[in-house]
## 1
Amino acid sequence: MLHPLIANPSATRHILKKFKLRAVKGLGQNFLIDAEVVRRIVEAAEICAGDEVLEIGAGIGTLTQGLLEAGAKVTAIEVDKKLPAVLKETLAGYENFKLVEGDVLKINLAELMPRRFKVAANLPYYITTQILLTLLEKNLPATKIVTMVQREVAERMTASPGSKIYGALSVAVQFRSEARIAFDVPPESFLPSPEVTSSVVVCDVRKPPFEVDEEFFTKVVRTAFAQRRKTLANSLAATFERGKVLSALENSGIDGARRAETLSLAEFAKLSEVLK
Ligand code: SAM
């Protein structure tokens, strides 16, 4: 069956009009209208026939269609109650498509995706960080996470220690994956156009490079960055006992006068294990 392409301005306008829809700003609805961007996301995700793919935020099925055409088996989550009826029509005839209605942050992803899978998504920008942290910290069998995010978030995900934008998100992403910005996407590639440039980030998930108690590690990292302007000793002492913080810093060979943004992954790993 030949399917009309969704990824262009006229098809998208036609679908929105037909179903009397308006993009809902509060749900981060910026629909892709650029077939080349869809193609490049599918390419960045290295989709092969039979790959299990989780898409977060199917919208009207634009990226979903690209993934399905490449042979993926797509499970897509969508929270907007008006969209299932649209997807039923735009993706009619594709056999390997499963829609899960609901909020991605409330769905048990481990249960939904029990086998190895890839993520490909044009994320709703208002909850990008929560979604990324859920995907990375829940130890799901995800092997590759390819997401469209705001350029500024992409830069934070891939920032190096010592840079002003290196923070808890950078550590969470880089602790569990090799992350890189694949390409930028201009506002004109979406309907409606967002105000900022977007980027597609590829995270190749791997085992963390250091063995740590992950829950405690996450707590230490978040506490350390909670007050960026404070020294490490002071920000950690807001949650942990000051005496223990000072001796853990000394035993890890880390100067407590440093700020969290200067610590490497190895230093955070060591500090969290000693503090524990
Ligand atoms: N994939 C489509 C595309 O590329 O054109 C739509 C992308 S749009 C940026 C984000 C989508 O995420 C919207 O369809 C929106 O309704 C959906 N969404 C927003 N919040 C969500 C949530 N909490 N759970 C699941 N989907 C959500």
## 2
Amino acid sequence: MSEKISVLLSEEEVDQRIQKIGELISKDYEGKEIHLICVLKGGVFFMCELAKRITVPVSMDFMAISSYGSDTKSSGVIKIVKDLDDSITGKDVLVVEDIVDSGRTLSYLLEMLKDRKPNSLRLCTLLDKPDRRVVDVDVHYTGFKIPDEFVVGYGLDYAQKYRNLPYIGIVHLEENE
Ligand code: IMP
Ligand code: MG
């Protein structure tokens, strides 16, 4: 099997949308400081681009989690592979994710972060596949709602490849001749 990638969202479309979300977040958090939490590795490209467009003071931290389950289906039970460096207690926390699919990973993660008593806790995702939702997740900022297709680029991978694509592409699997 090999794969072909077709463009779903161009680099320009993604950039323009991130600019818009950055403006919206800057307005919503006026007079406050935002503590951005990036969920590695998928969220890293989006968080960097978003952070550059936020005009209120920003601090950042990173977290790596692994999900128990197969590659294409998350169980929702997550293990912290790398925890945050700093406490989030009393902070206005914005979690930045690449994609919300079933919602299992995010709902588990958000509950865990809530226990650490941030002043506020919101979620910003570049992509959302609403048709796939199994667990309800409160998403405050969404880049794009997309159909139920497996996508790569802008941090998202297929078998660890394609994270570096500057656009969002759909993966098509092909039989080799
Ligand atoms: P959830 O718990 O089902 O919402 O899983 C979310 C995670 O699954 C994301 O953070 C991604 O790592 C991965 N994922 C879901 N859909 C895709 C996709 O279309 N491409 C790449 N990764 C995906
Ligand atoms: Mg992810």
